[in-house]
């Protein structure tokens, strides 16, 4: 559990103006690597865009959709002069041509492996569905690339206690096998606000000091 000081620091960071910076469909289109970056990854429809909106206090900063595969590029959002939030295309099932899915999957992998200012990946897991094979594959790739990631459980307001406990237990047991995984798990709900303050505090530790 973060301290009161950490929670306040996180709150102050996310009172800063957050704005859309750019979208990229190739490594050549990435913005300059001036700020620390935190990327949000997860299966299609796990709630990446909704979580970014909840963290920043916006409703339409990151575009949300019920259609899997709506995000087909990497979207960058600049928070003050301190942190860049990165919304990645979802992995797993997507309602998009296989050729398109393959292209953005390769691009995302290159970004994750070679982006020098990438401080951490927030790997989102829907508490109702738990860990899927595609999530395990991403974890293995991040381990191999040496990219630190933290498990963020989403949609906590929609799941049963049984589903949530099962996801928590599986995550804790599973993380011991993954060297790049952050040991702490944060449970969130973009709708009810569960865990938003805690996640803000965690992300503030990765940001440029202010």
What does this structure look like?
The structure is a single chain. A hairpin with a 3-residue loop joins strand 3 and strand 4. This protein has helices spanning 4-13, 48-56, 98-114, 133-145, 161-175, 196-204; strands at residues 18-24, 37-42, 74-79, 83-87, 118-126, 149-154, 186-187. It has 210 residues and is α/β, with parallel strands linked by helices. Strands 1-3-4-2-5-6-7 form a 7-stranded mixed sheet, sandwiched between helices. It has one domain (4-204): P-loop containing nucleotide triphosphate hydrolases (Rossmann fold, 3-Layer(aba) Sandwich). Helix 1 crosses helix 6. The chain is globular, with a radius of gyration of 16 Å. It has 6 helices and 7 strands; from the N terminus they run αββαββαβαβαβα. The longest helix is centred in the middle third of the chain and has 17 residues, at 98-114.
What keywords describe this structure?
seven-stranded mixed β-sheet; 6 helices; 210 residues; globular
Number of domains: 1
Task: Report the C-alpha radius of gyration, rounded.
Answer: 16 Å
Widest sheet: strand order? 1-3-4-2-5-6-7
Task: Note the run of SSEs as H and E.
Answer: HEEHEEHEHEHEH
Annotated CATH topology: Rossmann fold
Topology at a glance:
Elements: H1 4-13, E1 18-24, E2 37-42, H2 48-56, E3 74-79, E4 83-87, H3 98-114, E5 118-126, H4 133-145, E6 149-154, H5 161-175, E7 186-187, H6 196-204
Parallel strand pairs: 2-4, 2-5, 5-6, 6-7
Antiparallel strand pairs: 1-3, 3-4
Helix pairs in contact: 1-6
């Amino acid at each position: 559990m973060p301290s009161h000081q950490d929670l306040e620091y996180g709150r102050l960071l996310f009172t800063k103006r957050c704005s859309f910076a750019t979208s990229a469909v190739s490594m050549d289109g990435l913005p300059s690597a001036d700020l620390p970056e935190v990327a949000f990854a997860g299966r299609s429809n796990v709630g990446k865009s909704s979580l970014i909106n909840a963290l920043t206090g916006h409703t339409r900063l990151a575009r949300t959709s019920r259609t899997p595969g709506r995000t087909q590029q990497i979207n960058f959002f600049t928070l003050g002069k301190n942190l860049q939030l990165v919304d990645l295309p979802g992995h797993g099932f997507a309602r998009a041509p296989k050729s398109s899915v393959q292209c953005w999957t390769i691009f995302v992998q290159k970004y994750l492996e070679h982006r020098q200012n990438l401080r951490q990946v927030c790997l989102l897991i829907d508490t109702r569905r738990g860990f899927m094979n595609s999530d395990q594959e991403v974890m293995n790739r991040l381990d191999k690339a040496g990219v630190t990631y933290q498990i963020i459980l989403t949609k906590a307001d929609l799941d049963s206690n049984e589903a949530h406990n099962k996801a928590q237990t599986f995550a804790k047991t599973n993380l011991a096998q993954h060297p790049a995984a952050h040991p702490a798990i944060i449970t969130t709900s973009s709708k009810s606000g569960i865990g938003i303050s805690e996640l803000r505090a965690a992300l503030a530790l990765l940001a440029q000091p202010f």
